[in-house]
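_Backbone structure tokens_
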Amino acid sequence: MSPTDRTVSPIHDQVKTPVLPEAPALSGVNNGVCLPEDKHLNKAKEILHIIESYSVNFQESKTAWEGFEVFLPLVRQKVSNSQPVRMILPAFPMKSPNRKDKVLGRLPDFGEELALLHLNGLCDNIRDIYEPGAELLIQSDGLVYNDILGVSDADVWDYGESLRHMASEKHLAHLRFVRLWDLLQHPGPDDESLARDLYLSHAPCLRRELIYRYEPENLNVDQAIRNEEDTCLTYRGYLKFLTRDLAYHPNMIEASKKGAEKLIAQTARQMIGRGKAFAAAIKCRFPDCVRLSIHESVGKGKLSISLVPQPKGSGIAPTPWHSAVAVCLDGTYLTVFPEEVKDTHDLVYKAGRPYFYREKADMFRWPFPVKIEHQYPCGVIITPTDTDHIHPPPSIREIPMQKVRTLSNHFSPVVLRGFSHTLDESMYVEKAHELGKVLPWSFGITQKVKDSGRTDKMGNNVTSNEAMPMHFDGIFKFEDREHPVTGEVKRVQIPPGYQYFTCPATAPRGTGFTLFASSRLFFRYLPEPFSVDRLEKTRWAMDNNGFWNAKLGDLPLVVRHPVDNSPCLRWHQPWDETKTKFSTCIVTIENDTQEIVELINQLVYDRRACLYFTWEVGDLLVSDNTAMLHTRTSYKTNCDRELWRIHVD
């Protein structure tokens, strides 16, 4: 059983909240005596800052998270024990009962897929700076509320099982799913084949036990709504989504306007009461977890996050079980209600089920059947459909390369998988000419990128098995151009517009990733006080030795895309001798703070802005070299990994 399939093991002993150590003095001074720097405290802060960056309030207004100091001792204790940091999110109950005009069905769809990838990416970001990593517990609240909303226990089970299969299929190893019986410390069945029947037969008992054991004594819901800001915010959220959830409930259909409002308010109050019991059980059962929430809050005891990242300024978006996903032509994902997009978007199916909406455009209409799968956080994979042993996959000769080029301007990288003749070099080159103007190297059109085995300083790190710095292709390519009016001749950087790859051989799984960092997403998550306007005025310089021996200065940090005028990051990551035996690179900011260097180096690897791509033999790939940066992770020496690359304008 994979890590994502298993539930949290039940604990039979009474769980007691541990006494957490007080946080050390943040200044490093105690009674006037200087103390050694607390490396555990500093690492805990670094981890919490990553978690904080996922907060909607932090992203929108740089508002400090009030719960930071609350959870700091807890995270510091994990760090001091070299244990994974644990987070818990009560969420993913079941799809809304309104399956006519609010959601696409009763099972998870692209919204849940994006949400799980987003949460797993948070854990990956923590693992990048803290080796023990992190795990995120998803505590389903389906059985807590489903009977109130008229959703069957069977629907709750099927929804949860589909989530587990989705996480396993996507290799989301940092996520753990928790059922209500785990929360109440009851053992699940030894035989997994009996789990569904056991779940359905015990669901009503589990609900009653939750309320009996954990509902606060003398709870006055109305008073809690009036006096507790978090409770009031949650109640208002309930009122908002229940209006649509219960739109087709028999009692709502027959009720007057006032009667409907009363029914919604009563349901919301009942959910508040259940929620109080649920929150108390989580606090008792998982006292060592940083608490996340999908609801608006003041942030003292939890962190409010959006599960499907939205454009900046959107606030907390509807959750996947209260909406559908719409894919926009600029590559963004929106959570919407179907009626908002049904005329402008196509409904896309997966495995025979409605999965998401996609804005209509000619680039998605191909001359033969294909499946276009959108990736997180960016990119698409296109595979031919309707193929079998009688109907072979189409040749790359049939691929409409101008559509691929257009797709790459919006959804880079574009991966073409499952086509035939991808390793026919003459056909591969022929398709490059259809993509655009081919830019030859000094040695020919195609560069074959593989480990040459060379290890001396003057070797080329591109043809090695080392990790590479984040960069764009053509950074050293210049041309003298004369100004049409003044006649002044100036050296101008002329990098290629597109990269075009095919993959004859891969590295062992888990190594040799190619990473693609999206400029659009980089600027989406760029924190204050930095902005596009500020970075557009910034100039930088780089000093390289070895194979790439060059000194470049007055380089623009941001350029505008020739197709849509969007801001695009131009960058080469600093790379010193601790990272390579080949060419090193020193980078300096010429007219602004050097803090920009570290800011960029962190954000271009952030899972919210960077796709970690795993190659398969025969993949073709086209990437917009203006909109995207890229790099490679290291791989085993003497490995057969090989890519062919052509530059195109």
Summary: Confidence is low (pLDDT under 50) at residues 1-36. The first strand starts at residue 29 and ends at 30. The domain at 452-496+509-614+624-639 is CATH 3.60.130.10 (Double-stranded beta-helix).
